[in-house]
């Protein structure tokens, strides 16, 4: 056998070793978004995908709770203000602490009626998930933000909303006012123009 035969055996040997190695490797666990989507699909809702903005919002919340070692939706301020950059028409947040892995945390949320409603937020399409450890490293805090796409004003106002559906109105900052008109006042004293 020449060089070609040796090269062929080495290539086949390498391929065989690679296939055996892949077969012996345990399957990777589903991602958090896939796990949430699977749960949602079983309950008639649509799939969600990870969203970088929601991931950042969730991470900021998880870090704030870990820094304060306090499980609180307000650890970093009101939710509607924190979620505004996502541009969502509706959004909800789940928080937890204790478990080191997402699968167990998700199970905890599924078993809680309020958290379960958030996971099943109608027509949600995006999700952000994050965790952070407290200073001692003994407690893991989780935050999940799930959101639906922006709904234009007036659409469905009060109509069709499911009773008890978790809904957080996202406050938008008002548009900046037009330029102030120039004033002929040289001095303004007690509301008088002089």
From TrEMBL:
Residues 1-29 form the signal peptide. It comes from the Bacteria. Residues 35-144 form the SCP domain. Residues 161-174 have a biased composition (Basic and acidic residues). CDD domains: CAP_bacterial. SUPFAM superfamilies: PR-1-like. Residues 153-183 are annotated as: Disordered. Keywords: Signal. InterPro entries: CAP_dom, CAP_sf. Gene3D superfamilies: CAP (3.40.33.10). This is Cysteine-rich secretory family protein. It comes from Bradyrhizobium sacchari.
């Amino acid at each position: 056998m020449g060089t070609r035969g040796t090269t062929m055996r080495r290539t086949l040997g390498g391929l065989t070793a690679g296939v055996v190695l892949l077969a012996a490797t345990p399957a990777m666990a589903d991602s958090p978004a896939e796990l949430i989507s699977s749960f949602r699909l079983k309950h008639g809702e649509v799939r969600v995908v990870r969203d970088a903005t929601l991931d950042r919002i969730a991470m900021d919340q998880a870090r704030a709770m870990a820094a304060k070692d306090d499980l609180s939706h307000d650890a970093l301020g009101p939710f509607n203000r924190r979620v505004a950059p996502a541009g969502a028409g509706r959004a909800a947040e789940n928080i937890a602490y204790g478990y080191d892995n997402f699968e167990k945390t998700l199970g905890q949320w599924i078993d809680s009626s309020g958290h379960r409603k958030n996971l099943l937020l109608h027509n949600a399409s995006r999700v952000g998930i994050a965790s952070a450890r407290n200073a001692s490293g003994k407690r893991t805090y989780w935050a999940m933000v799930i959101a639906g796409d922006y709904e234009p004003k007036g659409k469905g106002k009060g109509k069709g909303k499911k009773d008890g559906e978790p809904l957080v109105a996202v406050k938008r900052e008002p548009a900046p006012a037009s330029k102030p008109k120039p004033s002929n006042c040289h001095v303004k004293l007690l509301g008088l123009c002089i």
